[in-house]
Write a structure and sequence with these properties.
- By secondary structure, the protein is α/β, with parallel strands linked by helices.
- It is built from nine helices and five strands, in the order E-H-E-E-H-E-H-E-H-H-H-H-H-H.
- Strand 1, helix 1 and strand 2 (about 35) form a beta-alpha-beta unit.
- The longest helix has 19 residues, at about 125-145.
- It is elongated and about 70 Å long.
């Protein structure tokens, strides 16, 4: 038997553009044992805020930014219309769960709320596919020709970290890559400063976690 105590129930704040949507969503979620609604008069900080909007226009984005500026709460956005750019704008505001209104059954909403509370995102599959295509184009057409990638590291920086991980010292790396030792030291210093890495071992660990080496 699946029971949820008050300890593991996700606290949720519901916000909608119109009172009917607000009341309807609140009544659906109030009956679910997985979540607990934070009432308007309550000063408790929720774990997840659910915003309902027909379209992600500038007014809605302004509201999302305001939520993001004033709290660390994660968000779920329930909307009728959203494109890839609006998806990115919502994600920048901490709204990592996106559900289309036509698919917003109580069961699906509760699943997404639970995932977002754990820091896991949820995006409609078609939007995700289009977004990944855009990411691929950006890497191939914009970042790649400039020697950059989404990790924030240039190709030369990745190559230096790969050789550090293989146990090469500064002189070895300089010889292999045909750079001066000063250049190699500058590359490592720049990487560690930009990414707040403590030392070479920390830099190698970062590169491993990112799947770069």
């Amino acid at each position: 038997m699946n029971q949820h105590t008050s300890v593991d129930r996700v606290t949720v704040d519901v916000r909608a553009q119109d009172p009917i949507s607000q009341a309807g969503l609140a009544s659906h979620l109030r009956t679910r044992p997985e979540v607990r609604l934070v009432e308007p008069e309550n000063t408790e900080t929720p774990e997840v805020v659910v915003v309902v909007a027909d379209a992600v226009d500038e007014d809605v984005l302004r509201a999302l930014r305001q939520i993001h500026r004033t709290s660390a709460v994660r968000g779920v956005l329930v909307t009728t219309h959203i494109d890839e750019q609006q998806l990115l704008s919502a994600a920048e505001c901490g709204f990592i769960g996106i559900v289309r209104r036509a698919e917003a059954t109580p069961e699906r909403l509760v699943r997404v709320i639970g995932a977002v509370a754990k820091g896991e995102g949820h995006v409609p599959p078609d939007l995700l596919g289009n977004l990944l295509e855009q990411v691929g184009r950006l890497q191939g057409e914009v970042l790649g020709p400039r020697g950059l990638n989404f990790t924030g590291l240039a190709n030369r920086e990745i190559e230096v970290l790969r050789l550090v991980a293989e146990g090469c010292d500064t002189a070895d790396i300089a010889l292999k890559l045909a750079y001066s030792e000063r250049t190699i030291k500058n590359v490592l210093h720049a990487v560690m400063t930009r990414l707040n890495l403590r030392n070479r071992s920390h830099a190698v660990a970062y590169a491993l976690r990112q799947g770069l080496i």
